[in-house]
Amino acid sequence: MTETTETGQKLVKSSEIDRKFKYEISKIPGGEKLLYCFQCGTCTSDCPIARFSETYRPRQIIRMTQLGLRKKVLSLDTLWLCASCFTCTDRCPQNVEVAKVIQVLRNLAAQQDYIPRVFKELGSSILETGYAYRITQLRIKRREDMGLPPLPKGNPERLTKILRKVRFRKFLEKKENLKK
Amino acid sequence: MTERNKYLIFLGCVIPYRVASYEVSARKVLQKFGIELVEMPDFNCCGLPMDPVDHEMMLIMSARNLAVAEQQSLNILTLCPGCSGTLRKVNNMLKEDKRLREVINTRLNEVGLEFKGSIEVKHLVRVLAEDLGLEKVKNSVVRPLVSLKVAEHNGCHFLRPKKIASFDDPEDPKILKSLVEASGATCLDYMDESECCGAPSVGINDKVPLQLTRDKLNHIKIVGAQALITICPFCHMMYDTNQGRIEKMFSENYCIPVLHYPQLLGLAMGFSPDELALSELRINVSRILCTHKST
To answer: What is the ipTM for the molecules in this complex?
Structure first.
């Protein structure tokens, strides 16, 4: 149970803190500059998503990561709201690749099965057809009517072969995961 | 050696799924410029949609496409900035990082492929601006769209992150604008024009990205643009396919036609609306076509 202070703020227990988390992220490509963030807030103030979302705050995600709130940050729904427009990355005065840190966090979240449904759909379409969206026969026929050349064929067998050892492919092949 | 007037065209997934008019018009325009397009012998998604959940999966998917293109000794031309951004990123990563290249090549070798780092990846606009040049684009215009006032939207992955895109200035982009103006039309400035349309967040949450698109449409309407010009199939879906939905949701009224850049240029080059698949657009373009005819 989360304890609260007299003013209603949530307390974080020291047992919830993973002190090595920030170093772990710093070692993953894209996360190298995490520790440089001094919380100026340029990322949040320039973020087009943060402008319309009441909960998505890239600065907060970076701070939670620095503080080692592993479980909290990886289970955030808002982690998946980032549009990867890279405005934060381009404008950070400390050269923190904010959008990439978020991508690294998403990858870790996915490893713990926090995966929004849309990625399961995209992933299974890719493995089955080569394309991220299922392109219907009607579309393919319409292409011909519009005078377009035949659509390049996906090669799911070859693709599955080279992705054999990839974690997310293994995840998708367990059918029960797709239903979640 | 790769040639400058022959490219392997990488369509990506969204264009064949929903945005055929972009492909139709791009092929028409490129053919007229004498740029030959070769189809991908076999295809898989560039990998971008998988990057959030599995970076390694994205790397392998992207690298496979690059290796296929290398076998053809052809540079890749994409219409989607998401595809070009991803393929460019992975191309750079594997060219620079020998260890990573070895790891990825171990996988590719299983299907007889190898990444060598011998090709380049370019978006359509980049091919027009760099390989062909603004002058040639201008010279191709036979029916300048002089009375037309439009706005442009570059989209994010075409310009950002700056380090990978290494093209125009993402804070004040000018190149697409100059290409738009080559058609004879006036290209208007508007507030927050290099800002994201919101598309990548659509699968996660509809409301936030649609508010973003609405905000952009408001800024475009305020300056009096008669049409919006895009170079990305995702951005196009946000502005064109979703425009009616946004109007309903927020009680707005826009009726702003959204043209793919090659549709605009194609009109100025003398192609007919049919040849450029203008009727495929959700927002009717006849209004701006009338303006164009009366000049």
So the answer is: 0.94
